[in-house]
Amino acid sequence: MRDLPFVMYDEDQRQILAIVERLVRDANAKGIFIVDRNGQLIVEAGEMHGVDTTSLASLAASCVAATGSLAQIVGEEDFPVHFHQGRRDNLHITLVGTSFILIVVFDERSSLGLVRLRVKKASAALAKAFEDMAKRAERAPASPTNSPFSEITDEDIDNLFST
User: Fold this and answer.
1) Cα(113)–Cα(118) distance, rounded to whole angstroms?
2) Based on CB atoms within 10 Å of each CB, which residue in 35, 87, 107, 131 is the most buried?
3) What's this model's pTM, rounded to 2 decimal places?
């Protein structure tokens, strides 16, 4: 398998967003975030306006990486589910496939049991969608024209950084 960059097309984004928006409703969550393991926010939904999503994505990815290291120390491959309970809000973090993290923020309007139940179903749908994207990327011929940077020339780069 080639090491391919992650590319999400409009139809992929709509499909992922539909799954996430349904999860917001079904789990009665405040917010849902999909992050890659590098800490890049992929999709968000819900009512969590004003949240620093860059920090949230980065810290969630760091948390998953640190917990993965702890898992290996005790002989586990990974801990695919994390739960953080707060006074007002709670975080339920789930690994989706090998590259993505699903973060659910919920409060007293929901319960951990409901969130876990709904996340299980949504995770399967998300994993399938991400797998389909990866298969499509694998089938694409390896060539520089597939790159989003293929039309950028050396002259464009020089102009960008010249003063």
Assistant:
1) 9
2) 35
3) 0.80
